[in-house]
Amino acid sequence: MNRMAQIVAIGLLVASSGCHDLERSRQVDNPAVAGRTIALQICSNCHGVNGVSVSPTFPKLAGQTHQYLVDQITDFKSHSRSDPNARRFMWGFTHLTDAQIEDLATYFSDQATEPGEPAAPELMDEGRTIFTSGLPAKGVAACVACHGQHGEGAGQFPRLAGQHADYVVKQLRVFQQTDTRPRGATMKAVCTNMSEQDMRAVAAYVEAFPQAPAAESASPVREDAVDPPAKEEVVDPRTKKAGEPSVNQ
What we know:
Elements: H1 2-23, H2 35-47, H3 66-78, H4 84-90, H5 98-109, H6 121-133, H7 144-147, H8 165-177, H9 185-191, H10 196-208
């Protein structure tokens, strides 16, 4: 009986050790490894544990829309997204399962976002105009139409708010000058006539994405500016003249 107990204990120890190893595994080709583990053990090296990357070479993933992340990871896996950094950093993820891709998208989309630092006011103003109104004379549509009033993105349209300005500029160039992004037809049409200055301005704006200034609160009313209510005159009935109405009537 003691011998059997020892065998069971050893079996449980090995099993728990295997689970512990899976939680730390870097085996992307192992379908048993959860997407969250891959995010923490592998993706975090470039994108940060919480999806807030330090280097603009790698995009911030925190708060990114779930569908956009699924689409892009799928395109990396199939090698249909072929811009230089995609080939260099992402083409090795060919063994990800659909479940792992869903897990990765869920993990990063749930992370808190962090805005960047604002650029020069003139550049920010120029970027705000492009984001909200576009450049009609150049055929550039307003970013707000697809990416949301606050740059939050929706579905297949990515979140832009807080993204590294240098990364945004780099992707705008990819859209404009190449066909290496399979879902990029809309963006190619949008940025065809954008100048380098246009790209840098709108990128600077979305990185910091300043909130609209709060409406100025109404000036408080000074107590001494309001006439106090008239005091009711109290008449002593003993001194009231004959024929005068009483105040209590």
